[in-house]
Amino acid sequence: MMIPSYQNFLPVYLEFKTSTDTAHSELPLSVRKFNNISKKFQDGKVKEYLYYHLMKETLELSVNDAALCIDDFQKLETNVEFRNEINALYDQWKHLIKGKPAPSWEYLTPAGKNVSVDNLRGKVVYIDIWATWCGPCLRELPALEELQKSFAAQKDIEFVSISIDQDKNAWKTMVNQKKMKGIQLVADNAWSSKIVSDYKINGIPRFIILDKNGNIFNANAPRPSSKKEIEIELENALKGSS
Fold first, then answer.
1. Do residues 152 and 222 both lie within one domain?
2. How many distinct structural domains can be found in the chain?
3. Is the predicted pLDDT of residue 234 greater than 90, yes or no?
4. Domain's final residue, options 72, 96, 120
């Protein structure tokens, strides 16, 4: 367990064994991996490391999935330091669990109009946090435009793009030149903006879905380029299902 290459191998092996196991395929992959740790491994040190590593990874990818495992993690994690670290991380993320009130924000359109999260209650909101200098963000724009077309007939959804550009002119120029659809907003203080800290945004693009009641549906939603996955997620949000 002191060898880094072995530590790196363990999560990969766990994912391989879980992905080839068709049992409980209706559950999220991270939950199935968590459940397989005790089934596929016997050594206590290996299991405590895998519980820790998986929970840390899952918190960054999907706090909703982490919430499904946290109670069992408390029972099964025998390393006190690992358990305390994950508990501290979970406390930072738990306000973004599905069903929690969405942290508030209010930003300006290119025309200088204020739009807030409260203005959008009654509709499902798909938020794109991006910037003009972000290559991966720009690569998602064509897929985002196609996604908007797919839901054009649906009146209960809004697509909101919030730029964290420091250079507001660069943002406004790109929005106008590309004739970007949906609600276009710019955050007030780039990486130091409230939305960045409230939604624990460590990298962009980041996509978020809010439900019709202004609550979190998915704080780390699929990207537009994952066409089938995001369409199913938005349809579920519109129906109010999981």
1. yes
2. 2
3. yes
4. 96
Q: Cα separation of 220 and 223, whole Å?
A: 9
For residues 126 and 157, state if they share a domain: yes
What's the rounded Cα separation, in Å, for the pair 21 and 27?
Answer: 12
Residue 128 · residue 159 · CB < 8 Å: yes
What are the counts of helices (DSSP H) followed by strands (DSSP E) for the chain?
Answer: 9, 7
Last residue of a domain, one of 47, 71, 96: 96
The DSSP result for 40-70, as a single string, is H---HHHHHHHHHHHHHHHHHH-HHHHHHHH
- The model's pLDDT over 40-62, given as tens digits with 9 standing for 90+, comes to 999 999 999 999 999 999 998 89
Q: Which amino acid, one-letter code, is at 35? A: N
- Beta strand residue intervals within the chain, DSSP E: 106-108, 114-116, 124-130, 157-163, 183-186, 206-210, 216-218
